[in-house]
Design brief:
This protein is an alpha/beta fold. It has a single domain, classed as Rossmann fold. It is built from 9 helices and 12 strands. The strands form 3 sheets. A 6-stranded mixed β-sheet has the order 8-9-10-5-11-12, sandwiched between helices. Strands 4-3-6-7 form a 4-stranded antiparallel β-sheet, covered by helices on one side. Helix 7 links the parallel strand 9 and strand 10. Helix 5 crosses helix 6 and helix 6 runs parallel beside helix 7. The longest helix is centred in the C-terminal third of the chain and has 18 residues.
Length: 305
């Protein structure tokens, strides 16, 4: 598959709910960067803060400090995350990969506010979210975090446009129909705004999910295996749209994937093993990603996904 190499970004920053959970209806400041990707150059228009020398730095779109998560107790406890330190700049595209049981799912759930870590701190656009009440966390997810999942999670009774507008509706915000139409045009579905999801192909439904994830101009879009249910050609098209959202809209995308080709659309790939970030690969190519995965899979790990 051909990759996009035009990585220009503008200063605009643009949720797909994971059923009830996502919507809740059911080195910066001394953070170590050993084995962790450096934060990219500040995006124009992004919020800034001063470093210890008074110089302006872009506030990370998402930042994890010493994040730990375990399941079970005593000798049976499984350390899913072992002190994750990470800061990702606005307008970046990061893929997260690792063998089965490496902690990828737990990483995404904690970073997106769907699960609470046992220790550490998570900041979204500079705001610490770890200690927020469930009510405040739900409101934050609805307006500041976008979700794209493998299973699309569209509501079959709503039209395409209504699905795109759903995050704003649930957040109690004004429904921006002009932006919804603009996003649908961007993903090639402007003419299907009044159709129901059942009248669309799988690839088209995932395009709707991408538009929905961008409608609130979230701080971060989390994509969990977004091409897992798609054929190769359609997957390429969807990945191109995520890449375009970063390059043209200044979106920040964090994508969990098992596919080296999908990961090659990102700016860099983080590799998890045993609940820790053990490697990162900037400007990834599919073969280089596959080689790293082979090496990681060959050694035993003890964390849960």
């Amino acid at each position: 598959m051909a990759r996009r190499h035009d990585r220009r970004r503008t200063d605009e920053r643009g949720t797909d709910p994971h059923a009830t959970d996502a919507y809740g209806d059911a080195s910066y400041d001394g953070v170590p960067n050993v084995g962790v990707p450096n934060v990219a150059a500040p995006n124009v228009g992004a919020p800034y803060r001063a470093d210890r020398y008074g110089a302006a730095q872009a506030v990370p779109a998402i930042e994890l400090r010493g994040v730990r998560r375990s399941y079970g107790r005593g000798e049976a406890a499984v350390q899913a995350l072992r002190g994750i330190d990470l800061a990702l700049a606005p307008g970046s595209f990061t893929a997260v990969m690792g063998p089965s049981g490496s902690g990828k799912s737990t990483f995404l759930q904690c970073a997106a506010g769907l699960d609470r870590p046992d220790a550490g701190e998570i900041r979204l656009g500079g705001e610490e979210i770890t200690a927020l009440s469930e009510t405040r966390l739900t409101k934050l997810r609805r307006s500041r975090i976008g979700f794209v999942f493998q299973s699309f999670n569209l509501l079959p009774s709503l039209s395409v446009e209504q699905n795109v507008l759903l995050p704003q509706r649930l957040a109690g915000e004004r429904q921006d129909r002009a932006r919804a139409r603009e996003l649908l045009e961007r993903v090639g579905l402007g003419q299907h705004a009044r159709r129901r999801p059942g009248q669309l192909s799988g690839g088209q439904q995932q395009r709707v999910a991408i538009a929905r994830a961008l409608i609130t101009r979230p701080d971060v879009v989390f994509a969990d295996e977004p091409t897992g249910a798609l054929d190769t050609r359609t997957a390429h098209e969807v990945l191109g749209l995520l890449r375009q959202a970063v390059d043209s809209l200044g979106a920040t995308v964090v994508m969990v994937t098992h596919d080296p080709v999908a990961a090659s659309f990102a700016d860099r790939v983080l590799f998890l093993a045993g609940g820790a970030i053990v490697d990162d690969l900037p400007h990834p190519g599919p073969q280089a990603v596959a080689d790293r995965m082979v090496a990681l899979t060959a050694r035993p790990v003890g964390a849960a996904a």
